Amino acid sequence: MTISKYACGTFLLSLGLLTGCGEKFLEETPSDQITDANFYRTQDDAIQAVTASYSELTKEGQYNLALWGMDMMADISTTGGGGGSDGIEYIQLDDYNIPTTNTVANRLWGGCFIGLQRANIVLQKVPNIQGMDPAIQRRCLGEAQFLRAKYYFDLVRAFGDVPLFTTPPTGPSQVYIPRTPAADVYRQIEQDLTDAFGNLEASYSGADLGRATKWAAAGLLAKVYITEGKKTEAAQWARQVITGSGKSLWPNYGDNFKIENENGRESLFEVQYVSGRNGYERNNVGFAGNEFFAPRGSGTTPAGGGYGFNIPEPDFVSGYEAGDTRKAVTIWVPGDPYPAGSATPAQLPQAPGSPFGFNCKKWFIGKVNTNIWDSGLNIPVLRLADVYLILAEAAGPTTEGLEAINKVRRRAFGLPINTPSAARDLTAATSDFTGAVLRERKYELAFEFDRWFDLKRYAGTPNGLIPRMTQQSAFLRTLGIQRGVPTERNLVLPIPQSEMDANPALVQNSGY
User: Fold this and answer.
1) How far apart are CA 159 and CA 243, in angstroms?
2) Distance from first CA to last CA of the chain, Å, rounded?
3) What are phi and psi of 233, to 5 degrees?
4) 351 within 8 A of 293, measured Cβ to Cβ
5) How many CB atoms lie within 10 A of CB 33?
6) Angle made by CA atoms 218, 54, 160, in degrees to the nearest 5
7) What is the mean pLDDT of residues 180-201?
C-alpha cells in the first residue's frame, strides 16, 4: 500500500475537506458530490477513508518537513542551507530559540491532528457499514487504530500534554478542550496499538503492500513502552516482533535505503512515496529530502543541484568507528564522487552551507525525474534494527540484550550477524551500557528523525538532552560555530500560537 499506490478518494467529512491521494490521480470524484451524509456506505468507501488517514504521513506535518528538525535539535546535524535566514524555522530549532510561531511546530501539530481525526472518523463510521467483508472491516479498524496511535505518539513526545480526541468533534465545545495529561494519552496509544495488533494482518502483498501490519503495531508498541520507561513491556513486545514477524536484517546496511528494497525484509512500516507528481510541493506524494539534503549547488539533483540542508556535524562524522559501513551510506564526505553529469565531480572540502564538507547522503537518489522536489524513496518509520536496539535497551547487559545490540553492530561492520565477534561485540563489562545503546541508535538510525526523542527520554542523566547538547554546543564553539544550549523548556516544543489563540482552554508549555 501507499498513500499513492492504490485507490484515491477525495471526500467531504464532518471536519472539512480531507484528501487522500492515490495512483488513479485523474479519476478523482468531484468533492461537491461526496459528503459525510452519503459516504461510508460501501467497503470501497471504508478503504478510501483509511487511505486518507495515511496521507498526512507524507506531508509537511510529518516526514516532508516537520520531523526533519528532530535531528537538527540533537547532536547529529545542523541547519545548513543558504545561510542568513534560509530555513529560519530550522535555525530556531537548532539554536533552541523557538518562538510559539515556529512553523515546524505548527505543521507537526496540525498534520498530526488532521491525520488522527481522519482515523477517528474511520473508527466511528466503518463499524456501521453493512455488507463489508469482516476481515476487511477489521483490517480497516486496525489501520485506523495504528495511525491514531502513531500521530498521538509524535504529538505527546513533541509537545507533552495534548488534547485527546477519540471521537470526531461535532461542534466548538468538543473542539476547544484542554490538554490531556501525557500519561493518559500514552494509555490510549497503548490501547490502540494493542487493539491494532489483534485486528491487523501479519503481511500483505500486491496493491496492499505497505499497509500497517500487526508487526508494525507490535514494534511501535515496543517503542512506546521504551519511551515511557516501561522496560519489561518493551522487551516483551520487541521479542514478539523478533521471533514472530519473519523479518530479518539485510546483510548490508545500505540495502535498507534502496527503492528496489522498499517494504522489504527488515521493514516493519514505511511512509510510502512515489515520484512524478511534486513539482515544488511538499504536500504531495514524493519525498522532498532528495533535493533539500543534497550538497548545495552540486548539480546532483533536478533543482539547481541540491539545497544543502540537514548538515552532519563534525563530531558526529568523526564519531564513526573505523570500518563502520554505515558512514558511507549516511554521509557525503570530501572526495566522494558524484554521479555522472553533476555540475562538479565530487564532494568538496568546503561547500555552500557546509563548511566542513559534509552532507546527508542517506536519502539521495539523484536526478530521479524533472519534478524537482520529488523522490519515490520510502522513509522507514520502523525497521527491525530499531526493535533489536529497543530490546537491548530494555533487557540491559544480559545475554539477550548484548546479543540484540551485537547483531546490529556486526551488520554495521560487514560481519555475519549471528557469529560472535571479539573485535566488535559489546560485553557485560561495557561501562554505561545504556549510553552504548543510545550511541548505537545514533549511528544506526541517523537521519531517520529519532535522535531528539531518544535524548529526551534520558533527560536528567548524563546521556540526556541538556547535558549532551551543552557539551555539543561547547565543542561547536571551538570550531567557530555558534549554537544555543537547551534548557528545561526545550524538552518539549511550544504549543503553536495559532492554536493558543483559537482555543482558550489550552495552556502553553512552561517557559514559552
Assistant:
1) 34
2) 40
3) -65, -40
4) no
5) 9
6) 65
7) 98
